[in-house]
Amino acid sequence: MCGRARCTLRGDDVPRACHRTLPPTRSLHMDRFRPSYNVSPGFNLPVVRREDACDSDGYVLHCMKWGLIPSFTKKTDKPDHYKMFNARSESLNEKASFRRLVPKNRCLVAVEGFYEWKKGGSRKQPYYIHFKDGRPLVFAALYDSWQNSEGEILYTFTIITTSSSPALEWLHDRMPVIFGDKVSTDTWLSGSASSFKNLLKPYEESDLAWYPVTPAMGKTSFDGPECIKEIQVKPESTTSIAKFFSRKGSENEETKLEQKVVPSQGFIKSEEQAEEAKKTEVGDSDLKSSQDAKKVQTKRHYEDSSDESKPALANKDLSPNPKKKREKAKTNAADDKQPNLFSYFGKR
Q1: Positions of the region Disordered (predicted)?
Q2: Active site residue: 2, 7, 63, 227, which one?
Q3: Is the pTM above the cut of 0.70?
Q4: Whole-angstrom Cα distance, residue 76 to residue 90?
Q5: For a disulfide at 58, which of 51, 68, 85, 224, Cβ 3.0-4.6 Å?
Q6: How many CB atoms lie under 10 A from the CB of residue 262?
Q7: With 70 as the cut, is the pLDDT of residue 304 above it?
Q8: Which candidate in 18, 63, 112, 116 is catalytic?
Q9: Residues near 21 by Cβ (< 8 Å), separated by ≥ 6?
Q10: Measured between alpha carbons, how far is 255 from 269 in angstroms, rounded to an integer?
Q11: Percentage of residues of the chain with pLDDT beyond 70
Q12: Residues 71, 101: contact at Cβ < 8 Å?
């Protein structure tokens, strides 16, 4: 966190922001400082540090690069200012890169505000954090020097962070250590290592303010007053594809209900009409079943009727004698006046 800041202060405003009333003992490399609304690691910023002499109460206004390069880095390495632009206050005494700097290499960084991104959904929205009255923010920092293979000495610094205050937890879980008065800045610069431990805590005063700014300032090349111009953030749509199809599915079910087809009744436009049609279907079915039952009943009555009501079979010849059958066939043939195939050939 705290990877972007605004520093448009003049060089002589920095000591005043850090509660230094006397002029600096000296100034170093201040010609490298370029005010900017969009400062990122690798930029040159003025810092206030103690004079090198241990018995001196003076301070130095020194322009350094943001992003710590430890002095033990190989001379042939290419400096990476994004690797250590922040240092966690909880682990200062655990990492060699920071632990050896705490006794004598403490400094102060003054900016008008810093940026932080709120992560939400598919986008990240930057916010600008600053004091309500417009006074500069003063951060706790550590610095170091490194010499490259060409013999050039490079001074760099890192901003110390801590857990976020309750007011800013919604935005990020970390925030820079902010000093709000002269006592804290004096203690950080000149106090003993044991005296400033209680200073590395979240800033919980109510004079901090924030508001959303344009996402365009995410590019380091984007600079100017537009970086801190407040914008209106549109809430991200909560309609999901699943909800869309679910709603459409329910609409289709309603449409199917309205367009339910009943034989000989057409389209049913209401549940009451559908119910009436259903009753009609049931009534017709019952009627048909009743008629079928009557037919079956009639047939059963006929079969179960008495012998007197059936055709008489007493005079019927049931004898299986083949001689009688042949005689009967001849009689029938003689009585049959219709010509047949045998009679036709007989006449010829």
Answers
A1: 247-348
A2: 2
A3: no
A4: 31
A5: 51
A6: 15
A7: no
A8: 116
A9: none
A10: 10
A11: 66
A12: no
